């Protein structure tokens, strides 16, 4: 299984992502933001950080990078799975690959702590092999307050991936992560790569990455 990690100017979670993906059994390569062609990857990982310094708003400039046009084709052609974490989630919403938007936290402050999230839809590659009903995963964001006008659409179509047990940022419906309609894209604010070992917490984050790898192997 091969994973590609997209790196933008300002990305700072790429090394964490590499470590966690290797722990989950992936071969890993980096993809620079101005590449216009993505190789044969089973998983494309868009990590956290501050792409382009979060100018205008988080993820707003990154969506114009050449690599994002290729990510759009990757998704449309069902070449593999896309996982966007924190700033990666923000980029996916700005690019229109996921519905809704990420706004300022209700506290208007940066939040960095462990949170518990419930696994809502387990019928996808990202979650079908997760054994637990809830996971403890770190968050670290200032713009993690998820909003969408048509919240019922997400619920009716099972597009909600994770919900916060105790909502830290004001997200509508306690949403911590969502899928696209084809269930080949997941965006989430919590950082599973930062809890991929028990020495980093309890290792819950690895459950998501292992689920992805096992689902891809069984396709």
From TrEMBL:
Its EC number is 6.3.5.3, 3.5.1.2. PROSITE patterns: GATASE_TYPE_1 (PS51273). The active site is at 86 (nucleophile), 191, 193. It is found in: Cytoplasm. It catalyses: L-glutamine + H2O = L-glutamate + NH4(+); N(2)-formyl-N(1)-(5-phospho-beta-D-ribosyl)glycinamide + L-glutamine + ATP + H2O = 2-formamido-N(1)-(5-O-phospho-beta-D-ribosyl)acetamidine + L-glutamate + ADP + phosphate + H(+). SUPFAM superfamilies: Class I glutamine amidotransferase-like (SSF52317). Keywords: ATP-binding, Cytoplasm, Glutamine amidotransferase, Hydrolase, Ligase, Nucleotide-binding, Purine biosynthesis. CDD domains: GATase1_FGAR_AT. Pathway: Purine metabolism; IMP biosynthesis via de novo pathway; 5-amino-1-(5-phospho-D-ribosyl)imidazole from N(2)-formyl-N(1)-(5-phospho-D-ribosyl)glycinamide: step 1/2. Part of the phosphoribosylformylglycinamidine synthase complex involved in the purines biosynthetic pathway. Catalyzes the ATP-dependent conversion of formylglycinamide ribonucleotide (FGAR) and glutamine to yield formylglycinamidine ribonucleotide (FGAM) and glutamate. The FGAM synthase complex is composed of three subunits. PurQ produces an ammonia molecule by converting glutamine to glutamate. PurL transfers the ammonia molecule to FGAR to form FGAM in an ATP-dependent manner. NCBIfam families: FGAM_synth_I, PRK03619.1. Part of the FGAM synthase complex composed of 1 PurL, 1 PurQ and 2 PurS subunits. This is Phosphoribosylformylglycinamidine synthase subunit PurQ. It comes from Marinitoga aeolica. The lineage of its organism: Bacteria, Thermotogati, Thermotogota, Thermotogae, Petrotogales.
